[in-house]
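Preliminary data (for renewal application), NAP complex.
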Amino acid sequence: MEKDTGTKKVLNDDSRKILQNTFKGLKRRVKIEVFTKEGSNEPFNNLSINFVRELAEITDKIEGSFLKIGDARAKEKKVEKSPTILIDPDKYNIRYTGAPAGEEGRSFIETLLMVSADDSGLSEDSRKRLAKLKERRHVQVFVTAACPYCPGEVINANRAAVERPDLVSSECVESSENVDLAKKFNVGSVPQTVINGKTINIGLQPEDLFISGLISLEEQKAPETAQPGEDIIGEYDLIIVGAGPAGLTAGIYASRSGLSNVILEKSIPGGQVAVTPVVENWPGMTNVPGKHLMDLMVQHARSYTHIHENEEVLEVKVGRKIEAITRSGRYLGNALLIATGATHRKLEAPGEDRLYGKGVSYCATCDGYFYKDRQVIVVGGGNTALTDALYLDSLGAKVTIVHRRGEFRAENHLVESVKERKIEVLWDSEVVEINGKERVDSVSIKGSKGGKTKKLKTDAVFVGIGETPLSEIASSIGVVTNEAGFIQVDQTQRTNIPRVYAAGDVTSGIRQIVTATGTGAVAALSAFQDISRSRKQ
Ligand code: NAP
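Predicted structure:
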């Protein structure tokens, strides 16, 4: 979407073309009501009005009404914030408080399709559990424009509102346009889910956990042993686990080789790059937001293969066929490619877990907005820390980098940018504790070479100290990993187990987007060779 403040077009030509196609899926007419109040939260009022007008121009299945806050309809629907958008308000209680101008625009479009089909799309199990709900639930999901995880949580809420329109209402709250609400609920990391006024969760949840929290109003922890499904979902030549750069590239190469394949992703596609503010070393693009680069890769991969999102592989069994088992059921394959990537490493400092979402963050792209004019520290000396520091500085935050040594390990280009922007650096320093009652208010820092511990005031701590590989499923079937848990592969991306391959950040070696895509391609072609050979035998 092109952000616009006046009467200019909101949607560019490419978005219009995509939406023309998407809206062929609308099953019936959907009414959208936009409420605004002049002078309040401009320019987002115009943005919302123009956005809905343009959607209604693309298809006659969308009908936009433009109303004023304070009029009878606004009072009837209890709309007080400008702008507010209601979707199909005669049937459902789904609202966007704030313009859906960022990532949450994706959830808005998906919700139009959902309500037009009058089908929540929830699993049978979730439907059965929601059918027993007896009390009202109002779900508020706080989002920011740049947060790629936010639309998924908004969709969880909207699905519940479509399934139980009598009892469940959902509200996507754009935090930057509703600072009072964000403050009221102490929002510091998004998506933050508040149900009936109580914060239930921070982060994108799998559907079953979201439904549990909705019903119980208790914060949900991932169950120690999620229930694996039993039904056979499909049979493929190659099952790819993970939809980051490696898995997506493997899907493209496998399909083009003629291998049937599926990509199983436990969360949203895009991997860690989707939350990298800016990428400057992807050949052909001097400077591209990580999310945009991954959107292009995901779109490309989807034109070849299927990506099953929110589909975590809980267990793998290697027999004549390889089975990848998820909550939905069993995927059978002749070969398996593990491209599960890595996750951010934790500092393991006291206060880190307790203050997560209250100033401690691992995602500058998602949460940077909340600290745009505040004091923040970034911990680390690699590419992640410096990219995050530069992004936070560009938002207007007062950034201090805390690094345990006397020199950075990041690319020289990033180091030079940090110098140019005169970002403060505390060298030879370690964060030993994160302090604060309700929110982060300081960190305790100790010199790496000794010395006294001192306190440094800060509103947030962004941790960028490297990665931990997500290699549990590999280890569970006997795939050899190195001491740090990264999978060991040969030059052809084969592991020690026949028909099991690995690629990208979960493997040992250089961890860059180009190498992830390269190893994804090599792994897919190795699988192709092995499968072709076995077919000839
Ligand atoms: P990294 O390159 O492993 O760097 C981690 C940094 O954190 C190092 O400076 C390390 O210090 C420090 N560190 C590690 N453990 C620490 C601890 N317990 N306490 C304090 N400091 C600690 O990790 P990364 O920056 O997250 O990058 C991960 C991979 O992704 C790398 O391969 C990187 O090149 C890649 N990446 C690339 C880009 C890009 O090219 N645009 C962007 C992001 C990430 P020492 O230096 O003392 O070891």
